[in-house]
Design brief:
Layout: E1 6-10, E2 14-18, E3 23-27, H1 30-36, H2 40-66, H3 72-79, H4 90-97, H5 101-108, H6 115-134, H7 149-152, H8 154-164, H9 174-180, E4 185-190, E5 196-202, H10 205-218, E6 224-225, E7 232-233, H11 255-283, H12 285-291, H13 293-316, H14 320-329, H15 334-347
Antiparallel strand pairs: 1-2, 1-5, 2-3, 4-5, 6-7
The structure holds zinc ion.
């Protein structure tokens, strides 16, 4: 694996993203959206822990480089352990941190990116990390010196969310002014059909984010914020959708399924409980002895037909309270059965 960043080729609705080795397409806005849905604290912990394990090596190399001329005997000593200052360059660092790719992919796996896309984005994060570790400002004890800013800067992440939700004030944010200063190298390349595409060389996560958000504004789609889990999502059928279709709290059900299932479950539970009660009241021996089977069967059947009607009507408007009070008012308690019986007798 080299450390040359990625190439983004602009298409109509997506970028072709390429590392020189792998290539895939990724729709506009999807990268920004998946970034907002990362569990940041866990991801930062994993990176910091990993780099911390290598921290001593990185720092030792720095020290060795600086004392090459003054303390050659120390260099000899370390060479015995296979540590050579001139052998640590960006490529070596990239190789050292490469095992981080698997945990990075795990953190990026939040419902929006496929495997190939996660591989390429985690590769971009690795490129930025190795670049930062190579810089003089790198301090392995301070993760803010090497972890990409979009992962550690909360204000920046909030800003990305505001932009994705197309909140008007987000355009006026000083952060946006800062982001607009980012310089990105662009060129024009022809594809195999002779069509020209704008092409960008990208070495860090923020530059890609800038381009992705610019493109996101040009498309008609807009994300919503899930009222259940607070993650951002693209509505599937209607712009007014309130719940996402991502797995809810590591369950196999989505927020959308859970929220809608919950509503219908409460109706079903209320109806089934009521049915059970009404059935028992009309099928106990002592009641049958008192009122007779014909009357009780008729009451039960009439009630179940009525109940189905009310169930459908109240469920349609999601009014569980009214459904429950209807159930309460029609319960076959002692008084009501007596009342119904009088009515029944008078009719005959
Ligand atoms: Zn959700």
């Amino acid at each position: 694996m080299n450390n040359n960043g990625i190439i983004l080729v602009e298409n109509k609705t997506n970028f072709t993203i390429s590392s020189g080795k792998d290539e895939t397409a990724i729709e506009y806005g999807k990268y920004a959206l998946s970034l907002t849905n990362i569990n940041y604290s866990k991801m930062i912990n994993d990176i910091a822990e990993f780099v911390g394990d290598f921290g001593n090596t990185f720092q030792l190399t720095d020290t060795l480089s600086s004392i090459q001329n003054t303390h050659p005997e120390l260099l000899k000593k370390y060479a015995k352990y296979g540590i050579f200052p001139d052998r640590i360059n960006k490529e070596t660092i990239h190789l050292l941190i490469e095992p981080l790719q698997t945990p990075l992919i795990h953190h990026l796996n939040n419902g929006y990116l496929d495997n190939k896309q996660m591989e390429l984005i985690s590769y971009l994060i690795l490129c930025e990390l190795s670049e930062n570790i190579y810089l003089e400002s790198f301090d392995w004890k301070d993760h803010t010196t090497y972890i990409p800013s979009i992962l550690i800067n909360k204000k920046l992440r909030q800003h990305i969310e505001d932009i994705l939700l197309k909140k008007e004030q987000s355009f006026l944010s000083p952060l946006q002014a800062e982001m607009n200063k980012i310089k990105i190298t662009a060129s024009i390349q022809l594809d195999s059909n002779g069509i020209a595409h704008t092409t960008y060389s990208i070495y860090d996560t923020l530059s890609y984010l800038m381009l992705d958000l610019q493109k996101y504004f040009m498309i008609q789609k807009k994300v919503n914020k899930c009222l259940s889990c607070k993650r951002l999502f693209y509505p599937k059928f209607r712009n007014s959708e309130k719940y996402c279709r991502l797995p809810h709290n590591d369950t196999y059900l989505s927020c959308d399924e859970i929220m809608h299932r919950k509503a219908s479950d409460d109706f079903v539970i209320a109806r089934n409980n009521a049915r059970g009660y009404q059935y028992n009241r009309t099928h106990t021996e002592s009641t049958i002895k008192k009122y007779g089977e014909d009357f009780l069967n008729k009451q039960y059947i009439d009630w179940t037909i009525d109940c189905t009607l009310h169930y459908d009507n109240y469920k349609a408007v999601n009014d569980l309270t009214s459904f429950k009070s209807w159930i309460k008012s029609t319960k076959f308690n002692k008084v009501r059965l007596e009342f119904l019986y009088q009515q029944y007798e008078n009719k005959i």
